[in-house]
Write a structure and sequence with these properties.
Elements lengths: L2 H21 L2 H12 L4 H17 L1 H10 L2 H21 L3 H15 L2 H12 L3 H28 L4 H7 L1 H13 L13 H8 L2 H21 L2 H5 L1 H21 L5 H18 L5 H29 L5 H14 L3 H11 L3 H27 L4
Helix pairs in contact: 1-7, 1-8, 1-10, 2-8, 3-6, 3-17, 3-18, 4-7, 4-17, 5-6, 5-7, 5-9, 5-10, 7-17, 8-14, 8-16, 12-16, 12-17, 12-18, 12-19, 14-16, 15-16, 15-19, 18-19
């Protein structure tokens, strides 16, 4: 990559790790602290987590629109400042309603990130696929390191409120990084109005892309929200770390012809591994979780190429906002569903259902590309 592209991707990758690491530390807090303190069953835990996830997805659309108007640095600064403030609010929460409101704020602040960063990479980074891959690896490293650190600190006996307050530190550091090395600004004098923007994304190919993200989101949140309690915090941290390698590999694969076919194949492979967890055999649960982590996070760069191929350049912030509304907002149904099924003692049925959802995501990827090449609108 060009030096300026490496600098931009490096900055964004750091913030990407912060955003995902913070959000995916929530299942660790649930498993090791909140379930006990607030007397939550699996259904209640799923509902509490979904509050943050819904905010994460719902905020993506308005912030994506802001990204299309320019000033990405300001949006990113608002994102990390909001995460720092929300982490502090979580640490100060004394009741379940206070915690729920703090988690909603955390999700909304984190939701500013993806449409802004991904639209920037798609517009300005010359080797887009590799940029998405390295950016994804930064996210996966944060996903692995922050939940592992949270689990370790809680295991050492530190109060969970102090650990939650510590999550504000990397967000403050990210704010400083942006102040020193801001990302270049995108601006378009020909930014379409909201009606024209909606017409640009109201196509059959993009509708199918949205289904790719929604089905993947159901599997993503339905599995990751409760895996720390099923396979242990150590295995959970390892499967998240393996996702970093999957992101880089996938970034390179997305530069090759027919990335939608690769996405289809890898979605089916991830679905098959997820289905294997239905056996309940301890060694299969551990090994399957690690393989699933590698494959699940490898899907993201390939999914992003579908967006850039389906919508005009000037509305990609809004389009990415819609996809992340799908994966993090609508997809959060997976966390609620998983909580209800685990509360009913149906873990095997849950893993099979989530595997089917991930398989449907891959099928929609193929259908979207076929529709686009056929001129669907």
């Amino acid at each position: 990559m060009r030096p300026e592209d490496r600098r931009s991707v490096g900055t964004l990758a750091f913030i990407h790790g912060l955003v995902h690491g913070t959000i995916l530390s929530l299942p660790v807090f649930l498993a090791l602290a909140w379930n006990r303190e607030f007397r939550l069953d699996a259904a209640g835990a799923g509902g509490l987590a979904a509050i943050a996830y819904v905010g994460f997805g719902a905020a993506s659309v308005p912030f994506g629109r802001l990204a299309d108007r320019g000033g990405e640095t300001n949006v990113l600064a608002l994102c990390v400042a909001g995460i720092a403030a929300s982490a502090a609010a979580v640490s100060l929460s004394r009741t379940l309603p206070e915690l729920a409101v703090s988690l909603a704020a955390l999700g909304i602040a984190a939701g500013a990130y993806h449409p802004t960063a991904l639209a920037f990479i798609s517009r300005h980074v010359q080797e887009q696929g590799r940029g998405m891959g390295w950016h994804g690896m930064g996210g996966s490293l944060g996903i692995a390191l922050e939940p592992a650190a949270v689990a370790g600190l809680l295991a050492l006996g530190l109060p969970w409120r102090e650990v939650a307050a510590a999550m504000a530190v990397p967000a403050i550091l990210a704010f400083a990084v942006l102040a020193v090395r801001p990302a270049p600004v995108w601006g378009s004098a020909a930014l379409p109005g909201i009606r024209a923007t909606l017409r640009s994304v109201a196509t059959v190919p993009f509708a199918l892309v949205l289904l790719v993200y929604v089905f993947a989101g159901v599997a993503y949140w339905g599995s990751l929200t409760f895996l720390p309690g099923i396979v242990g915090a150590g295995s959970y941290a390892l499967l998240l770390a393996l996702g970093a390698a999957g992101q880089v590999l996938s970034g390179h694969l997305s530069e090759r012809p027919h990335p939608h076919r690769t996405l289809f194949a890898m979605s089916l492979a991830a679905a098959a591994v997820l289905a294997s967890l239905a056996t309940g055999v301890p060694w299969i649960l551990a090994a399957g979780a690690w393989g699933f982590g590698f494959l699940l996070f490898s899907l993201e760069p390939l999914q992003n190429t579908l967006v850039t191929g389906s919508v005009p350049r000037e509305v990609r912030g809004f389009a990415f906002g819609m996809t992340f509304l799908g994966v993090f907002g609508l997809g959060s149904i997976g966390a609620v569903m998983a909580g209800a099924m685990l509360a009913a003692n149906l873990p095997a049925a849950l893993f099979l259902l989530l595997a089917g959802s991930l398989g449907m995501s891959g099928v929609c990827a193929l259908a979207s590309e076929k529709s686009r090449r056929g001129g669907g609108s």
